[in-house]
Design brief:
This protein is α+β, with helices and mostly antiparallel strands and 383 residues long. It is built from seven helices and 20 strands. Strands 5, 6, 7, 8, 9, 10, 11, 12, 13, 14, 15 and 20 form a twelve-stranded mixed beta sheet that branches.
């Protein structure tokens, strides 16, 4: 099928399309790992996880050597999950009909292809972040966070032991509007910085670089209602919550839940339901570091937080993005290839030209994978 160029073939093509670009806040903020170029599509690369040290003891002088203190390292499996391309084609007759103007159009097609792939990468990071966070903070679903919410999410990261440096917070544009409307931030005499008032730059807040993204997710909350835990006691740091036979509906990974007598909002990492309603033997697994409050033996009501936007605060090392160019056979292929770097995101793309019979097809390509490495260093601001 040929391109539709009828309206663009006059002697002088005056129109120049300005390619739109959505906000990509996650891509520049997450950890990048160049080792991903050794990882084949859907193959596994493992990232080690050091165990917590619970063997502290008293120093007691003795003539005998201390015993060995072996530890078992955990790991997180990383994969290149996607190898994608965005194509477009030109025939010789189409190029001839437009003269030199087709080069400008081709540039915009490349920009649109990069835009599409960047948005897909950004959406993947946002999705993984919403599913892999440790806890959440916010009071009202569907309402943009207020300044105090950012202070509280800093507390969550601090309590979880996240690094104090290289922290980021990625929010949607609704939350961005709310921040820009906060007088303490735009009044220069109070904030000490004219950047927000004069340029709309959100900058740094409570030690977090504030970025905006068009791909913040708003997942539909699970339908579980009137459910309770079993009567077993809760211990500090517990992640697996056994359920009683009570209530209806289920939850899924990424849902936010609270328990009676505990104000913390926990993010569900995984679930085990035998049927459509909670039953004895079913369980909810919370993301690390698990429960922040121990409770004595009793059944506890479980409340599922309503549908809400998942603005995200994290230390850079919490999320790993691995990218590479799609692999070619050792013998090469029939295309001509160049690598270009998108200045807005820092991602390197491969532009390939495949000549055919009196026409060419272009591919803009990228392979990538995403992994939440450290849930403890990742939290959600409910919006």
């Amino acid at each position: 099928m040929a391109n539709t160029l009828t309206s663009l073939i006059p002697d002088f093509v005056a129109a120049l399309d300005v390619v739109s670009r959505e906000l990509n806040g996650f891509i520049p903020a997450v950890q990048r790992d160049s080792r991903a170029d050794r990882c084949a599509l859907n193959a596994t690369m493992r990232s080690f996880v050091a165990p917590a040290n619970t063997a502290a003891g008293n120093v007691t002088p003795a003539m005998a050597l201390p015993s060995a203190a072996d530890q078992t390292f955990g790991n997180k499996a990383f994969t290149i999950q996607k190898s994608r391309f965005a194509p477009f084609s030109w025939s010789g007759e189409e190029q001839n009909s437009l003269g030199a103007n087709y080069l400008t159009m081709q540039q915009d097609q490349i920009a649109q292809a990069i835009r599409a792939l960047c948005n897909e990468v950004e959406a993947d990071i946002a999705s993984y972040a919403s599913l892999g966070a440790s806890r959440a903070f916010g009071t009202t679903a569907g309402t943009a966070p207020v300044l105090a919410d950012f202070a509280q999410i800093k507390k969550v990261l601090d309590d979880n032991g996240a690094p104090q440096s290289d922290r980021h917070c990625v929010i949607d544009t609704t939350a961005g509007v709310a921040l820009r409307g906060t007088s303490n931030l735009y009044k220069v005499n109070e904030s000490g910085d004219p950047s927000l008032l004069r340029q709309g730059i959100l900058g740094n807040l409570y030690g977090m670089d504030i970025r905006e993204s068009s791909q913040i997710v708003t997942p539909t909350a699970g339908a579980m209602a009137s459910a309770t835990s079993s009567s077993a006691a809760f211990t500090l740091g517990q992640t697996v919550i056994p359920l009683a036979t009570a209530g209806t509906g289920v939850v899924a990974a990424g849902d936010i839940v609270t328990f009676a007598n505990d104000t913390n909002k926990y993010v569900v990492a995984s679930v085990a339901f035998a049927g459509a309603n909670p039953a004895s033997g079913d369980s909810i697994t919370l993301a690390a570091p698990g429960l922040r409050k121990a409770q004595s033996a009793a059944t506890r009501a479980i409340t599922v937080f309503a549908t809400s936007a998942r603005n995200t605060a994290f230390a850079r090392n919490a999320i790993l993005l691995g990218t590479r160019l799609p692999a070619k056979p050792a013998e090469g292929d029939l295309g001509m290839h160049e690598t270009v770097v998108d200045e807005r995101t820092g991602l390197a793309f491969e532009i390939s030209c495949y000549p055919g019979f009196r026409m060419v097809t272009y591919h803009v390509s990228l392979a990538w994978g995403v992994l939440v490495v450290k849930p403890e260093h990742l939290a959600l601001i409910i919006g």
